Amino acid sequence: MSGSVVAFRSRRKAALLDPAQARERSVLRRVGIAWGLLVLNSLTYYGSILHIPAALGKLITQGALPLAILVALSVNRRVVIRPNVFLCLVTLLALEALVTVVQPQHFGTVYRTVRLFEYVAALWLLTPWWGRRDMLLLRYYLIWLSVALGTVILGLLVVPSYALSEGRLGGVLWDIPATEVAHYAAVVGGLMVVLWLGGMVHGRIALIAALAGVIIIVLSHTRTALVGMVAGLLVAGLSLIVTRARARKFFATAAILGSVGIMTAAGVATAWLARGQNAAELTSLTGRTDFWHLVLTMPRTRFQEIFGFGLSNGSVDGLPIDSNWLVAYLEQGLFAVVVCAIMPLFLLVAAFFQPPGTRRALALFLVTYSLVASFTQVGFAQPTTYLLELTLAASLLVPPAAARLRG
To answer: How far apart (Å, rounded) are the C-alpha atoms in residues 135 and 87?
Structure first.
């Protein structure tokens, strides 16, 4: 086909769109870009085989947050927000962080508090697009996570020795830890299965996404992601089992295949779950409980017990804490632990009062996965993809907006 014919057809297609439709498409595209920038902000820069300077890598990730706010303001110039309880709880975490900023231990506390407020502001600016029937934010989230996974797969194909250098699949074009790679794969694969159970995507597409997700999880050797995905699918599927015959057939088939798999491949599965660790390493969750003990035994005043020491990089004595609840307790005290507990509890209660359907099942998958992962991963007490996923769940549980914001 010649270039002139392609250009003609493109102009003809553009001409078929009236100004209102063209503007709406532009608005939705910018909403997707803002959401993608929030995902990019969550990708902490550790390094890359592309030899991107550390300063530039951090500028890209940390600069994505203020850019996301600017893009969101370009489509929400009147700063219209949709009131909701969930983001009020998130805002409480940000406001509580101000208490410890009064007497900061280091500059990082102030900087991280400002960034937390920026993150919350960006989420509020995108609330007019909550409750859309086309699940706009969910679709864009799947797209951006798939892009991140695409860089991991490309790195595996180009330099497999680096991608599997520690026996676990990680990102090398953009250094993404194996745990995060498995997290993205589990969420994308799980959400696609739930969409298929609800009759919203083709079975072939869901099968490819699910198989790819499981393969990536296996290569990354991440047990939390596997357990979280299975638990999320179980809860989401059970919420559809009464209304969807496809869900009933899925569980019947899964039960049969699971029984056969346990009898034939139990040894292989046990070896994979053990990851070559001894009993002591397994009971200590790969040494995590040692770090948690340091957090719990750290001397603190009554004030610090309630409000914490201030936002930090989620470590103690240079060791990563790897637990949403312990990080919340260290940084923002018992107050943050209570708020973090209320956040998923509120979403579960809200889901209970929603009619059975795909939207509720998707929300339940995201909440269940985040809860499982929160015990061994830094979760929704900080600006992470876990907080984005809980926000997505909240957006799926609100009724469709009466009118769409057009900028």
So the answer is: 18
pLDDT digits (tens, 9 = 90+) for 11-49: 444 456 678 888 889 999 999 999 999 999 998 887 788
User: Which of 331, 301, 300, 119 shows the shortest CA–CA distance to 339?
Assistant: 331
Helical packing angle, 324-352 and 85-101, nearest 10°: 160
Write the Ramachandran bin of 325: left for phi over 0, alpha for psi from -120 to 50, otherwise beta.
alpha
Q: Give the per-residue pLDDT at 266.
A: 61
Tell me the pLDDT tens digit for each residue of 170-200.
999 988 999 999 999 999 999 999 999 999 9
Residue positions counted in the chain = 407
Question: Do the beta carbons of residue 144 and residue 35 sit within 8 Å?
Answer: yes
pTM of the model: 0.90
Distance linking the first and last C-alpha atoms of the chain: 38
Domain ranges of the chain: 22-396
Q: How far apart are CA 394 and CA 269, in angstroms?
A: 35
